[in-house]
Write a structure and sequence with these properties.
The complex is a heterodimer. By secondary structure, chain A is mostly helical. In chain A, 66% of the residues lie in helices and 3% in strands. Chain A has helices at residues 15-39, 47-71, and one strand at residues 4-5. The two termini of chain A are 31 Å apart. The chains are: A mainly alpha, B alpha+beta. Chain A: It is found in: Membrane.
Chain lengths: 76, 557
């Protein structure tokens, strides 16, 4: 079988755009997480909401920072 | 120098007299071209091999003097099936070191395996390319900067072979400059910068006639003593770095194939050295391929620099983390081993395949392959889990009670205040919901003025009524708690006021709503409705404003 060339699953030209947008979304979710932490009192807090917000924020921040590293030339 | 040659000649004379004929091959025509235009000596021999015996012959032996064989960097033999001028379809034949019996000493013998055995009377054309490093010796060894550089090269005018040669000729190609001296034997001619020896006929096996050529060459002899190539195979692109210690040679820049031109900071004369590093990135799809679930990397082995001799070449291929089943195949033998390298965002380290080879010339710049499999999403997961860990730490910090003394007055007071705050927040949310219901009511009135549907208004009012009753029930225990708690003392009046005002607002709004609905049912005119509703409307607006102010005030505490 003829070998087919491998390319990255995300096109190179998208890296900067993707990194900026993912980081922006991640930071917005982070902000909402901290606002929730600051304004809710001890009894009203719901652990499920905190965890989901944290997980979503870390997902976007993780991918955003990966694309940021790739776009700036540090090919990790 | 002369003595040494004569010694060799003596040895071979003895050898010739005492060696049996090895096989029945005869070389009917041998044309040799020795290219001395650069520091690397390339000898191209075209041999017409004929099987003069009766058996099948499946290999052809090539012999080199031992001192030459030490400098032999690259040996390739191809058969030429095409006729006449079609030279492209040469198939490279496997060559191995051979040790047949009865060979004279001080000879290195290589055996070329033929693709199909040569039968009786058959002929075959073989093209042999032998590349030698360090074969040109500067002579004199030390000169001043103004002198010209002369080099000396030794070889044999007769083709050294275990077989008899019928007709042979040798052509030595020198750089376009002065020829200082060369050995003159019979049939020697010069044509410009080429020396032709031959044709010589009917020579026995192992014939040898030393020739020495002393000539001027203006080529720098760039030798890399240690050359390390580091190839990072990374998720998206492929990066290579070279670290070398050598003399510098300048290259030109061309358009289609990227070529790099660089110059050292100082001109490098003979015996001087410098060290530098080059790094570059290449797009991945030219080199990395996938087939049957494995990936393989197809890259060139040696240096891309022009005419560089490398004494010791180390190639390290760094593969992504998690690669398994590594294997390397090269067209020539190399020493291989594996290491681990820890790099950015690595947990275990990346596997590195290290290949070492001595005495490398540009002919070695061929592709080699390495295979591996890997998992690609490791890095994003590492980053994501890193961030998530931060968030979890935040959550734990907020949830965990870190105070040292759990019975001090200030701690207790703080706790009570926390509870009061929680209650007030709940009260606030309930009141906000009530306000939303008011909005619904007003919206239904506006809808009615559009659609004229009285029933809808009534149903909206009923549901609103029910919800508001529920909310006031919820408010009761919260208010009770606030009344009982001492910490809420200063805020309690405001909260009570808020609740009272909201209730009043409810009543007024309900009254207004029913009035308007009645009017619609009785089909009274617009201005009548306005009249009846006006006083209530004013109060409603005022109350609403007060409620919102109170909410803001409570928020700020």
């Amino acid at each position: 079988m003829a070998p087919k060339p491998i390319t990255s699953p995300v096109p190179d030209s998208w890296y900067p755009t993707l990194s900026v947008s993912m980081l922006a979304i991640g930071l917005v979710i982070t902000a909402s997480f901290f606002i929730y932490e600051a304004t809710s009192s001890k009894r009203n807090r719901s652990l499920a909401k905190e965890l989901t917000t944290g997980a979503l924020a870390s997902f976007f921040l993780g991918f955003g920072s990966l694309f940021l590293l790739l776009a700036s030339g540090i090919y990790v | 120098m002369g003595f040494w040659f004569r010694l060799n000649l003596l040895l071979f004379a003895i050898a010739i007299l005492s060696t049996p004929v090895l096989s029945d091959l005869i070389l009917s025509k041998v044309d040799r071209l020795i290219d001395l235009t650069s520091q690397i000596a390339r000898i191209t021999s075209t041999l017409k091999v004929k099987n003069a015996g009766s058996g099948l012959v499946s290999e052809v032996l090539l012999a080199f003097l031992e001192f030459q064989a030490n400098n032999l960097a690259y040996l390739m033999a191809t058969t030429n099936e095409g006729k006449g001028k079609i030279k492209n379809s040469g198939v490279s034949l496997p060559i191995e070191v051979a040790n047949p019996k009865g060979m004279p000493p001080a000879l290195s013998v290589y055996s070329v395996s033929l693709p199909k055995a040569l039968g009786e009377g058959d002929t075959l054309t073989l093209d042999v390319l032998a590349v030698f490093t360090h074969a040109l010796k500067p002579f004199p060894e030390k000169i001043t900067q103004a002198d010209i550089q002369l080099a000396v090269f030794q070889d044999s005018a007769y083709y050294l072979s275990p077989y008899a040669v019928k007709v042979q000729s040798l052509s030595v190609k020198l750089p376009d400059a002065r020829i200082e001296s060369f050995t003159k034997i019979e049939n020697t001619k010069t044509h410009g910068s080429e020396i032709k020896y031959g044709p010589y006929e009917n020579l026995p096996p192992f014939s040898y006639s030393p020739v020495v050529v002393h000539f001027e060459t203006n080529q720098p002899f760039a030798v890399a003593q240690e050359y390390e190539r580091l190839k990072f195979h990374i998720g998206a692109t492929y990066r290579s770095q070279n670290i070398t210690i050598l003399n510098m040679k300048v290259l030109k820049v061309r358009v289609n194939f990227p070529e790099l031109l660089f110059e050292p900071r100082y001109p490098i004369f003979g015996g001087w050295r410098t060290a530098f590093t080059i790094g570059y990135s290449l797009p991945l799809q030219d080199f990395l391929f996938e087939s049957e679930g494995k990936r393989f990397l197809n890259i060139s082995f040696a240096s891309p620099m022009n005419e560089l001799v490398i004494d010791n070449l180390i190639v390290k291929v760094v593969l992504p983390e998690g690669s398994r089943d590594l294997s390397v195949s090269t067209p020539f033998p190399v020493k291989q081993r594996q290491e681990t390298k820890i790099s950015l965002l690595d947990v275990v380290g990346r596997p590195v395949v290290v290949l070492e080879k001595a005495n490398v010339v540009p002919e070695h710049n061929q592709h080699f392959q390495s295979f591996n499999k890997l998992a690609m999403l490791r890095e994003p997961f590492m980053l994501i889990s890193g961030f998530f860990f931060l968030f979890v730490a935040c959550i734990i910090y907020v949830h965990v009670d870190l105070s040292i003394s759990k019975s001090s007055a200030s701690y207790l007071a703080k706790q009570q205040w926390d509870e009061v705050q929680a209650t007030i927040q709940q009260v606030e949310s309930i009141i906000k919901q009530c306000l939303a219901i008011h909005e619904n009511l007003e919206a239904s009135l506006r809808d009615h003025s559009r659609t004229g549907d009285v029933q809808a208004c009534k149903t909206t009012r009923k549901t609103a009524d029910g919800l508001l009753k529920e909310h006031s029930k919820e408010l009761k225990p919260l208010l009770a708690f606030l009344q009982s708690s001492p910490a809420a003392a200063h805020i309690l009046p405001k909260v009570e006021e808020l609740v009272a005002k909201e209730r009043e607002l409810q009543e007024r709004l309900m009254a207004k709503h029913s009035t308007i609905v009645d009017c619609y049912e009785k089909k009274l005119g617009g201005w009548e409705i306005e009249n009846r509703v006006a006083p209530q409307q004013q109060k409603v607006v005022a109350l609403r404003q007060e409620v919102e102010d109170l909410l803001d005030y409570i928020d700020e505490i």
